[in-house]
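Preliminary data (for renewal application), S-adenosyl-L-homocysteine complex.
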Amino acid sequence: MPKETQRPRRVSSGGGRAGFQRTPSAPRVRKGTVRISAEIASHLRAGHPYLFREALGARPLREPAGEIIDILDDAGSFVARGMYDPDGVVAVRVVTRDEGEAIDSAALLRRVSAARRLRQSLLPESGMTAYRVFHGEGDLLPGVTVDRYGQHLVVHLFSPAIEPLRDGLYDALEATYQPRAIYEQRRYKPLAGEGPRGPATLARGEVAPVEIEVEEHGLKFLVDVTAPLGTGLFPDLREGRRAVAERATGRRVLNLFSYTGAFSVWAARGGATEVVSVDLAAKAHARARRNLQLNGLPEKGHELIAGDAFPVLAKMAERGRKFDLLVLDPPSFSQAKGRVFSVQKDYRELVQAALSVSASGALLACVSNTMKVSAEELDRAIGEAAFRARRIVRVVERRGLPPDFPVPAGYLEGHYLKFFLCAVA
Ligand code: SAH
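Predicted structure:
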């Protein structure tokens, strides 16, 4: 593991915050700087965390992954400092806009502590042990996320640029949370490989049990912190689950792509008269069943169907089955047929199929959690489906990321999670 990258820094002319490391007498080293246009500088100054490779134009950088780069505007003034990534579409991830701040272990500890204070001020004090403790760019260190599941932390590393900071980050996490273990997943190529994602690996602490019980607003869920694709609970969808619970009373609920049944558990808690969960994976249903039991929710009135959502919907429509609250949260990549789920076509067809089993007055929750799908595209897909199904569909509520997923102002596309609650006439 390369040592933390650092070079002597010039003292900033401004005041700066106390505690930043400064090396007043050291000369400025010109290596590792890049000049950008005034236009791009204004975006970065307004909070955008990424300098894209295409913005470098004909001035490619040749630094190794993780090298600290100073970004200057066309007049040579300091804009931001970040980490270099030689591979991806993002060339530099911005870590600081303070010229006097070094990117070192003290900075990492400040970031992790500040992130913790933010959660403490915004999340409930009890009944909440599954949430994001560190959200990359939103906590001023793009390229890494950290989720808490009980006494365990799960880190996702999205860029080789973060590797030189990895040990310092884990030290800061251990000092701040004293976790039983830190598990990590590399989400970039080529280290992560081209094949399917492997299980998370133990980076610090002791091996975790196969199942850990966590709480979300007092509801209990079982998770596996080592699982390759998901632990069993996606913390980013929490506000959507709450929206479903708030509207579930007296409704017949259909949860498509139900996975471990998180929406189903919330719907049952919210007073649904009937909950039907549909997922290709029977294994996911086993976890869903246990999640229901864990919360003392009756299994009676809960149906688990293992199958492809489309034929299941077709069969239900054929039999005239109707629901009053439907949740559509398809994967962005459909592994079932080995093809990419295209929102333009597949989402539209999915909504159309869901409308065929929607009672008049039903609510339809449409979810997309990929940045590749904009809110506009999702909205359009729903609208086109409504036209084809000859139904009137209106968006009555939109929810997004919970507060433990802060998004910097100036970075609108960072709101990757879309949750549209629609009223169906
Ligand atoms: N809605 C879930 C997360 C969905 S993850 C939650 O709230 O936690 C995506 C799920 O879709 C996986 O469990 C996967 O098994 C399932 N899936 C993928 N393709 C499917 C298909 N064609 N029909 C039904 N389920 C599918």
